[in-house]
Every structure is written in C-alpha cells, then in structure tokens.
Amino acid sequence: MFTIVDRRLNPSGKSLANRQRFLRRAKEQVMRAVRDASAKRGIRDIDMGGDISIAPDGIREPTLRRSSTGGQRDYVVPGNKEFMSGDKIKRPPQGGGSGRGNEGSEDGDGQDEFRFVLSREEFIDLFLEDLELPDLAKRKLAVTDAMDWHRAGYSVAGSPANLNLVRTMRNSLARRIALNRPTGDEIKALRQEIDDLERSGRDRERLEQARLELAEALKRTQRIPYIDPVDVRYNRFAATPRPAAQAVMFCLMDVSGSMTEHMKDLAKRFYMLLYLFLSRRYKHVDVVFIRHTHRAAEVDEETFFYSAETGGTVVSTALEEMARVIKERYPPGEWNIYAAQASDGDNALSDNTKTALLMTDSILPDCQYYAYLEVGQEGMMPGLPYGGGPRETDLWRTYKQINAGGVLAMRRVTERKEIYPVFRELFAKDKAGQPAEVSA
Q: Which of 77, 144, 200, 388 reaches 20 to 30 Å from 24, CA-CA?
C-alpha cells in the first residue's frame, strides 16, 4: 500500500483546504457578492481581489444538539421552599415587571455581514466561471492546442529507430583516443613483429617485451570497449504547441459625441470583462481594438479604453476597418472570427444602408459570432428619448432587420450592475448552436 503525503505549504500560513471547502459550500453567496462588487469597481480595478461580504445565513453549518422538547425529563430545582408539585402560580400585577417596554437595549446583540478577502485569481475565476467563447471548434477539434514535432538536438535515451549512428561513432572515436585504446593496426604490427622474431630466433629479450606489450594491448582492448553506452546518441524530437483552431476577437466601440461618459463607461466595462475573459481562457486568441467616431482606427488597449476623442457617428467606418484587418491578417479559412460592438445606437441616417450591406456581405459571413451591446442613460432603457415614448434606435433597427442565421446577438444595458448578467448571457458555454436573439 502506498501513502501519499501532500507537503505543499499553505499560502500565508492559512489552511488552503479549509478555504477551498468554504468557497465550495458558500459558492452561490460568494458569486453573488463578486457580481455586486464588480458593479461598484472602477475599470482598472476590475481584475483585483479584495474584501467581499456575504450574509451570515450563507455560512451556517448544520449541527446536532439535544432537542428541548420530547422525551421524559426530571428537573431538580434547589432552594424552592414555597411551591409543591401541582401548585398554581399567580400572575404578577400589571406594571410590576422590570422590563423597559420599547426602550432600546444598551448591549443588544447582533450579527454583521461575514467579510473575507478573495485573491485576484479567486476573484477572476469566480467572475468568469462557466464562460466560454461560443462555437470555437470551427474545425471540429476537441482541444485548442495541437502539437508539432521538431528536431531538438540529441538525447542519451530513445527508440532504436532514432539512433544517430554518426554522432554515436564520433563519440566512440573521441573516447577511444582519449583513453589511448590500442588500434587494430597497432595490435597487428605487434603480432607481425613477434612472428618475425620467433622465426629468426634472435633477440630473445625483444621477443619477450613484444609479447608483454601485446598482452597489455589486448587487456586494454577488453577494458575499453569499441562502443560504450555513454557514446550512444539518439535523435531528440520536441513537441511545440501550435494553435489548432485560431481565434481573433474584434472589439468595436463608439466614442462619438453622442456617447455620454456613462455610456462609455458601460462599454469600457463590457470590453474589460471581454478582454479578461479572452486573455485568461484562451492562449491563442488575438484581440483587435477598433474605436470609431466619423473615422475609425485600430488602436492599442490603452488608447481604446482611456484616450479622449469625440466626433460624429458613422458606424460603417468601423466595419470597413474591421474588414480591412480581416483581409490583411486574418483569412477566414484559417481563423475563427468573433466580434463584439458597443454603441448607443445612434448613426447617421445616410449610413444605415451602407452599414447593413457591410454586415450582410462582408462581416457576418466571415464571423462565427457577432455580439451587439447597446448602452443607454442610467435608469432609462436605450431607445427612450428624453420625455418621449419608446423607440428603436437607428442601429438597433438596422441590425434587427438583418437575417444573420444565428450569428448576431443583441442586448441592451443601462446600468453597471447589468453588465455582468449580459456578459454571461452573450458568452455562455451553451451559446454555441443556439439561434441569435434580440432582447432588451
């Protein structure tokens, strides 16, 4: 019987097993607390750990104790000199008690919320749990990585089929020269000399010396083998991972003048979650950031989230930029293409037709999935003008009329706390294979 002892140190002297057991038991409450905490954090702090609070009821454990009712019980009350068994006790006169009515207690007991600290890894793992990029297996591959085998030098062990004869013989020759192993020609010359001396019968002293040299040479030949195991070399092959199903995620965001700071904040939070999700879940996913006003440009992450720029609203410029990047760097036959767009729904009237044509002819045919997130003023659904009745925005109406064949999904948000549920809904594991939805 084998005994395995885990001697890994617990972090910071705390019980890792107990911590993991607690997180599993209170998982629902912890995930709800993580969701609430993410709605209150700044964009730069979204991927940090920290304190979270859960209700005390969520951490209670079942316990066994004696029941206060049932069974037969005998009580011994010492010091009773007034009453006998069966006596009736008079009710105390009204107002004779020592209670204080509704007056608050100075030392009342209570129970605050349970607070504890989550590490960054725990926070992000809980935050992104059950999320996967939809329909990633475009090529029907079960794994994201495949392995390529390349020559990687030599090894001292391996299959006979990989034996490198040239390297083995080179090592053998170098070892024999270094150890001064007699060669075949040297042994042959000694034997020839001995034969000549024996036939001539002269120089007996040299004959004995030659015989001793031959015996020593033969012993050295036996002690120093021609090929030793230390000489053997095999061709070594190393496995290097390569992307079996490459994916690229396009992040499109409207930063025009019609987007208020609150709307931009919602969009930035959505993309921050998306970027965290992609960078943690997949090793071989490229992310392309495209921001647009009446002009569009591919930018880096810092510029995408934090650069200040305003202007008009022409959505087709972002789609044209995305189509250009796809054509130059991401052939649809080799890459799985995903896109997510955030906007307030406004667009130039003259641009709606062009936007629809670009979506149907260029963008959606190349995409595995396209998510559109429409953001609105806080406390008011997108598409509701100030003081007016409900209406659909130009971009929402344009996208709604497109027959995307299950590729396009549309959602609306107005508050920070709605970002997390919408994000989970758009990128849930079971999203693959479902038809595209249009929802407010």
A: 144
Residue 196 sits in the same domain as residue 256: no
Report the side by side order of strands in the sheet with 335-343.
296-299, 285-292, 246-254, 335-343, 367-375, 408-413
**Amino acid 336: pLDDT:** 81
Query: Judging by DSSP bridges, how do beta strands 114-118 and 50-54 pair with one another?
Result: antiparallel
Kindly report which listed range (19-33, 195-209, 224-238) carries the lowest average pLDDT score: 19-33
pLDDT (0 to 100) of residue 198: 82
Q: What is the Cα–Cα distance from 266 to 376, expressed in whole angstroms?
A: 9
Nearest 5°: the CA angle 288, 292, 297 is 50
* Cβ atoms 247, 336 nearer than 8 A: yes
Are the beta carbons of 281 and 131 closer than 8 angstroms?
Answer: yes
**Structural domains counted in the chain:** 3
Pair 414, 382: CB distance under 8 Å: yes
Do 239 and 347 contact (CB within 8 A), yes or no? no
Same domain, 232 and 259: no
Task: Quick: pLDDT tens for 388-405.
Answer: 444 688 899 899 888 666
Residues in contact with 400: Cβ distance below 8 Å, sequence separation at least 6, in sequence order:
392, 410, 438
Pairing of strands 367-375, 408-413: parallel
Range of the structural domain that residue 281 is part of: 246-427
Answering whether pTM is above 0.85, one says: no
* Residue labelled with tokens 């490229």: 286
Tokens at 54, concatenated: 């859960």
Cα atoms in the Cβ-side hemisphere of radius 13 Å centred on 379: 1
229 shares its domain with 314: no
CATH number at residue 321: 3.40.50.410
Gap between the Cα atoms of 311 and 346, Å rounded: 12
Are residues 206 and 278 located together in one domain of the fold? no
> Are 309 and 421 in a shared domain?
yes
Comparing CA positions, the residue from 339, 397, 340, 387 lying closest to residue 366 is 339
